Amino acid sequence: MIKRSPNNTLEEQYTQQGECCYFCKTKVPFDMITRDHIKPASKGNVFINNKIYACRHCNNIKGNRTFQEFKNLLLKRCCYILKQVVSQGWKISELQLTMIRQYCQAIKTVDKIIENNNKTDIYFT
């Protein structure tokens, strides 16, 4: 794994965001956090003030999706886990419970973004 070079500006922004993933609110060490383009760079949105910090898991799921597409995928993943729980006789593993919690928190965050015309309440360069 490649370690991020020390950068006071990035670390200050990361601290401003609460040292956690913007979407699921999971605490993530600075060395492991990723910066996500709020509006996908792959769709031409490379302007400044277009980034937030996200855990690798949320960033990978979001990819270049719109917020609505991201939310729909999170809902689909929640449904998949719940179907697994039912097929296991309503026994949920610690991992499944953790994933459901993270997905639900991310859905809640994305709902707020969508309600705010697809704008986050914090962003960085």
Q: Could you give a short description of this structure?
A:
Helix content is 47%, strand content 6%. It is mostly helical and 125 residues long.
The N- to C-terminal Cα distance equals 24 Å
Tell me the fraction of residues in β-strands, as a range.
5-15%
| Secondary-structure element pattern, one letter each | HEEHHH
Shape: globular
Backbone structural class: mainly alpha
Low-confidence stretches: none
Rg for CA atoms: 16 Å
Helix content: 40-55%
Mean pLDDT: 90
**What's the β-strand tally?**
2
Q: How are the strands of the biggest sheet laid out side by side?
A: 1-2
Major sheet size, sense and barrel closure: 2 strands, antiparallel
**Helical stretch count?**
4
Any chance you could write out the topology, listing elements then pairs?
Elements: H1 8-16, E1 34-37, E2 51-54, H2 56-62, H3 67-87, H4 94-115
Antiparallel strand pairs: 1-2
Explain what you see.
With 125 residues, the protein is mainly alpha-helical. It is 47% helix and 6% strand. The protein has 4 helices and 2 strands. It has a two-stranded antiparallel ribbon with strand order 1-2. It is globular and about 50 Å long. 22% of the residues are buried.
Provide key terms for this protein.
4 helices, 125 residues, mainly alpha, two-stranded antiparallel sheet
